[in-house]
Amino acid sequence: xxxxxxxxxxxxxxxxxxxxxxxxxxxxxxxxxxxxxxxxxxxxxxxxxxxxxxxxxxxxxxxxxxxxxxxxxxxxxxxxxxxxxxxxxxxxxxxxxxxxxxxxxxxxxxxxxxxxxxxxxxxxxxxxxxxxxxxxxxxxxxxxxxxxxxxxxxxxxxxxxxxxxxxxxxxxxxxxxxxxxxxxxxxxxxxxxxxxxxxxxxxxxxxxxxxxxxxxxxxxxxxxxxxx
Length: 228
Known about the structure:
CATH class: Alpha Beta
CATH architecture: 4-Layer Sandwich
Largest sheet: 7 strands, antiparallel
CATH topology: Double-stranded beta-helix
Radius of gyration: 18 Å
Structural class: mainly beta
Strand content: over 45%
Number of strands: 17
CATH superfamily: Mitochondrial biogenesis AIM24
């Protein structure tokens, strides 16, 4: 299998080339083109577990209810093009099986079939971060595709790091985090427009996005004409 990131920058996409017998999984609706020998199977279940309950939990994680699985239906190689809904970068994460990756709401785009995709309950803190109450947990050995709104930056954490809640894309499960205020007090945080942040601790990698889709929608909404 070969995965290439095309058009790096604001409108990134991924091209997945499959050999006979190989499979790739993505969120449903991510495909924008495929060779004629690619067969698509749409299901609520990921590898190993999930089903209808898993689909419902993915909805709570701001992900798609369904997965799409791609495979060649003959003895020839094939390819499928995948792209996220929002403009931004797409990143390949190499999963080594030693640690899991936690994807924040909406950042999971696809993964090789050997990876286990499940939902991770992040507790009631999700209600206060402005994010969902569930994250996507990706474990095993293979390649993971994540997408972001804007640029993706990779950061190495060794000790601590503070990230605005709307800018987290994915992080290694070796990192722990806690909810906190951005300013000196909760009132100062809200008045400054910063609100709530996540304070990460430990050692591991984290991917953050340069722009916040919720804030963009909040700024754009009042400028749109009223619905008729």
